[in-house]
């Protein structure tokens, strides 16, 4: 480190020394090294940068932006909307499970009944095959047999047309009843699918309105202050779509399944009518043969 060299003047008569009047920077040390007039100070280092804890920074946010946190921080009306939509979604999946099991069993019974009707040669054979079975096809066969028994005394004189009409009417009513029973409960899916988005939109509008009211009260447009309220409002729309989309899809699936089930029941009803018509024709043929034999005997 360089040091400042101070030149001394010759001593005076009283023995005191006087400082040199020449510039210090112009003097030289005895060893020939030039002297400097300023002391070089070390350069100050920048302060050390401390690492930032990202988890702690996130934990310091004024709002919990998870779905549960946004739900808990939402307005009570928005909470009510989201709870109603959650209940609607629960109803949707409950109807899906119940109707799936019901349609699966009904279609299996209808298919077995249709095979039995197609296999039978007459109404009594079909009744014997389906005697211990349930389902709408077995009920149709029993209804047709019951109508034949009630009309037995009038068939020979009144003809077979009236019996056919009554059997067709009974089978038609059973077919309609079976289709109505299968479609029961699917209407709520259509209602949920059509109204859930609008219910969620109502919650969104209400939440955004509250956010703007908060902006007016706090007199700030800071995104960190405004964004949580808007996110809570938009969550209601998301919940509405979550409730509506499965309801629409499940309703369309059930509509096609019920149509297929009605087709099976309709085929079974047509087969039973053919069995009734065949029995009536054989009965008429037997009466004709009997009458011919009586005439020949006379």
Short summary of the structure?
The chain has helices at 54-59, 67-73, 76-119, 123-129, 136-150, 152-158, 161-183, 187-218, 223-297.
Describe the structure.
This protein has 298 residues and is mainly α. The protein is 72% helix and 0% strand. Helix 3 (76-119) runs antiparallel to helix 8 (187-218) and helix 3 (76-119) runs parallel beside helix 9. The protein starts with 53 loop residues before the first helix and ends with a helix. The relative contact order is 0.12. Residues 1-38 and 48-62 have low confidence and may be disordered.
Main traits of this protein?
298 residues; mainly alpha; 9 helices; 72% helix
Q: For the terminal residues, how far apart are their CA atoms?
A: 159 Å
Percent of residues in β-strands: under 5%
Shape: rod-shaped
Number of strands: 0
> Average pLDDT value?
77
Encode the helix/strand succession as letters: HHHHHHHHH
Helix content: over 70%
Structural class: mainly alpha
Question: Radius of gyration in whole Å, from Cα?
Answer: 49 Å
Number of helices: 9
Main pleated-sheet profile: none
Low-confidence segments: 1-38, 48-62
């Amino acid at each position: 480190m360089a040091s400042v060299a101070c030149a001394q003047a010759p001593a005076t008569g009283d023995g005191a020394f006087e400082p040199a009047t020449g510039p210090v920077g112009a003097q030289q040390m005895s060893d020939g090294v030039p002297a400097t007039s300023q002391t070089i100070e070390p350069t100050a280092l920048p302060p050390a940068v401390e690492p930032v804890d990202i988890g702690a920074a996130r934990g310091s946010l004024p709002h919990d932006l998870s779905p549960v946190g946004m739900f808990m921080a939402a307005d009570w009306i928005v909470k009510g909307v989201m709870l109603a939509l959650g209940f609607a979604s629960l109803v949707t999946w409950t109807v899906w499970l119940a109707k799936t099991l019901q349609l699966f069993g009904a279609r299996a019974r209808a298919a077995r009944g249709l095979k039995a009707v197609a296999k039978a040669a007459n109404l009594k054979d079909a009744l014997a095959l389906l005697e211990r079975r349930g389902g709408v096809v077995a009920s149709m066969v029993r209804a047709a047999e019951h109508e034949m028994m009630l009309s037995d005394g009038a068939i020979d004189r009144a003809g077979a047309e009236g019996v056919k009409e009554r059997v067709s009417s009974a089978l038609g009513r059973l077919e309609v009843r079976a289709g109505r029973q299968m479609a029961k409960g699917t209407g709520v899916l259509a209602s949920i699918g059509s109204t859930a988005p609008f219910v969620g939109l109502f919650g969104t509008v209400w939440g955004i309105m509250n956010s703007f009211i908060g902006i007016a009260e706090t007199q700030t447009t800071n995104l960190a202050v405004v964004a949580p309220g808007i996110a809570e409002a938009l969550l209601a729309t998301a919940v509405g779509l979550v409730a509506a989309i499965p309801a629409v899809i499940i309703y369309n699936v059930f509509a096609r399944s019920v149509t297929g089930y009605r087709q099976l029941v309709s085929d079974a009803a047509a087969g039973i009518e053919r069995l009734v018509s065949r029995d009536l024709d054989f009965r008429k043929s037997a009466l004709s043969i009997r009458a011919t034999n009586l005439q020949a005997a006379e």
